[in-house]
Every structure is written in C-alpha cells, then in structure tokens.
C-alpha cells in the first residue's frame, strides 16, 4: 500500500546525500529505509555488506519490496559495496550517525544542524553521504573515523535506540526542510478581513437583540458584558464571510424558521400520540 499521500501525477524529487546502510541486518529494514528516502526526495541508496546479501528474488526480495511501499525504484537502483571505503570513495564529505559519544573529537550535529549545511554544499556541486550502522550495534569506531562529522539525534537518553528506518526518516525530514521548509499544501484562501464598519454593525444588531431578550442583566454590568462579547469575536479575526454567516445565523434565530423549513418540520405532536 503506497499511502493516501501518494500522487503519481507529480514528479518525484531526487538528489540529496547518499544514504549508506552499513551491514544492514534485514532486507525488510532496507525496504523501509527506501520508503523513508522516497518520502523526502532522497534517491541514492548504497548498501555495504548486507547480512542477508541483497536479494533480487525470493521471499527476502518480496519482504523488502513490500516494506518499500511503492519506493521499489530505489531498491532497484541500490548499489552494493564490499566496504565503507568503496561506498564513500567519490564523496567529498561523509557524516556518521551514532547514538553514543565516540571520543573522536569530531563535530557533533543534530540533523537539523547538519542538513542546511549539507544542502548548501551539495548545491555548490559537492557530493555528501550519511552512514547508518547495523540495527543491533551501530557503526564501528573505525567506520565513524572515516566520517568528517557525526550526526546524532535528540532523543530520550533512557531510550536512545532508533530503528534504522526511523534514523533515515529523521535525516530525510531535515533534508527536505533545508530545501524550502514549506508545507506541501496551504490552507484555502480565506475571505478578506472584515472592515471595522461591518463588525460594528454586526455588534450593534447582536446587542440589540440580546437586550430585547434580557441578556444584559443586571443592567449595571452591561458595559462589561458588551466588552467581553466583542472581545470574543475580535480574537477570532473575523473575515467578511464570517460576519455575514454570523449575522445570518442570528437573524434566523430571531425571526424563526423560514416558511419552507416550517413545512418540512416533522409533526412531533402526532408522533407522540402514536
């Protein structure tokens, strides 16, 4: 299932840093990483010595492709390497993800800090990659040593373990934010803000009707009650359409049902007798 947000009429984004999975343990996890990459426009998947090999057929392939949920094109294009050194050979900068301090005196960044920096340098023509270690142990120290900088995640220190796809997802999310930071769709355009003359006219009508039915009691509190009532509406930042709707609603409450609505009203009296 590709999900309700999939739009096959829109061109998919591609690019970004290479996502390098070092000794991933399960084919299904690789599929889930591909899905996370596709969510955020990452398209370069590299695999270093997957524990189960890289399945091109059989049950392992079926599991990986199902987990990719429509991102199978990334699995088809995934490149297989025998070592981290081979996987990063043509890159100009490498970041290693880790949940624990390694004592290697490297700059340590969150994804939110690393991705804008990376986006600027990739736009300038550089090639970057992010290393992700095996699910159970993470990257070895010698693999972290290959990297220029470390990416770590601000998580609960008592439970800092992320699964592989979650880590890729967090990096991908910050990568997408670093591109333009915009939500994928905007709220519908609202009616123009109501001019003050329009709102004051509505207030006058509403307060007149409320006075008619004895709402402002005791009379000494009427000024304060009016202020409170008006401030409720001011906080709503009323549009022209809002005021028209509110006024129409009050008119109908004051004047009662329209003639055609009264005709359609069920005869509750006869129902009670039945």
- Helix count? 12
CATH class of the largest domain: Alpha Beta
**How many strands appear in the DSSP assignment?**
7
The assigned CATH architecture of the largest domain is 3-Layer(aba) Sandwich
Can you tell me the number of structural domains?
2
**Low-confidence residue ranges:** none
Task: Give the rounded overall mean pLDDT.
Answer: 86
Q: What name does CATH use for the topology of the largest domain? A: Alpha/beta knot
Overall spatial form: elongated
Helix content: 40-55%
Cross-sheet strand order for the largest sheet: 3-2-1-6-4-7-5
For the termini, the CA-CA separation is 52 Å
Question: Topology as H/E string?
Answer: EHEHHEHEEHEHEHHHHHH
Percent of residues in β-strands: 5-15%
| Structural class estimated from helices and strands | alpha/beta
- In CATH, the homologous superfamily of the largest domain goes by the name SPOUT methyltransferase, trefoil knot domain
User: Main beta sheet, described?
Assistant: 7 strands, parallel
The whole-angstrom Rg is 30 Å
Summarize the structure.
The chain has 274 residues and is of the alpha/beta class. It contains 12 helices and 7 strands. Helix 1 runs parallel beside helix 2, helix 5 crosses helix 7 and helix 8 packs parallel to helix 10.
Plain-language structure description:
The protein has helices spanning 27-39, 58-68, 72-77, 84-87, 111-123, 141-144, 164-179, 196-212, 222-235, 240-255, 259-264, 268-273; strands at 18-22, 45-48, 79-81, 93-97, 108-109, 128-132, 149-151. By secondary structure, it is an alpha/beta fold. β1 (18-22), α1 and β2 form a beta-alpha-beta unit. α1 (27-39) runs parallel beside α2, α1 (27-39) packs parallel to α7 and α8 runs parallel beside α10. The mean pLDDT is 86.
